[in-house]
Predict the structure.
Amino acid sequence: MLKKYKLWRRVIEQVETDQMPPDDDKFTSIHGSMIVTGVKRTLALLDSGHPELLDPGPSLVRRLSRVEYNNSMRDLTGLDLDFSQQVGMPEDSTGSSYENIAAALSMQPALFEKYFAAAEMALGKLFVEQDALFAGRPESERKPLVEKSKKAREKFFGAAGEPADRDAAQKFVAQFARRAWRRPVATAETERLMKFHDSALAKGEQPDAALRETLKPVLVSPDFLFRVEEDRTPKTSAGGMTIAAAKVSDVELASRLSFFLWSSIPDEELLALAEKSELSQPATLEAQVRRMLADPRAHALTENFFVRWLGAQKVMQARPSTEFFPTFNDRVKKGLLAEVAAFATTCAPRIATCSTCSTPTTRLPITTWRSITASQQTLAKRRCASR
């Protein structure tokens, strides 16, 4: 009934006014009254916001889209590359304007192999000697590429540089896994990763090669490639109590915010606040959203949400008649798209902060509440349409 809400409203209207069904001796006014009463009762329940309707069910497991994967790899490694394109990952086909529809982002064996190739390529660029990386290229091309690669390497390893011993390597692996997996990493998890390090050293590998082999499992782990949230909703109600919607944890909230606003992983400040359970505090949450919107990475909100929400990207497929529109070309298409993007960028801070930093009862599902039900979405749409 939720999907056909307007249709059922029309059913009530037409049955009450005897417009439907057609004259039939078998269908009496008593039948019509029963139908109208039942439909009205159901629609009233949907409109009431009853607590039993607030459980949206478990959150779907979300594979990172191509854009999210590229951005996450960029922020993790410092390498600004189109990893997906370079290793030949297939385009995400979601059947929607949006590319991050969870139900459509499956994991095929061939795609998983591409993730291994991308991890190998990224780590190769960070661990291979920089001068050898671009050998054979003209000096005019090689020098800026080497400088860019060195900056990425410095950002990746930090001021301390490449770890010199096992303890330093273990600390570096733990920090890297924490950022990649977007949550605190248990000591046992770090120890499992360090087995790759110890095994490589036992085979005679150099320390840098051993570290490289240790980081690869982090980048192909489901903890990195998927966004998984714990289902905290009670499975059954006890003593007739209603099942209320559960709140996501602060760490999960950090990922929701970063992937919505940046299409990427949380940065250190956001993750640190989440680990201290301070991010869900209204004042802190609003301050973080405003900070994130001021960051250049927030341009992803325009490209991956607002432009797609407005359907503006479809202008690139437009093919109007050259007889009536002789000057319509690719330059005009790009200009139209850029104009919409500029407008959305201007409006984004106001829209996002109003939606994200309101009271808990009206906050959108990208924030503290795990989700809102379809009935609430339908009700919100009807209220907006009536204004």
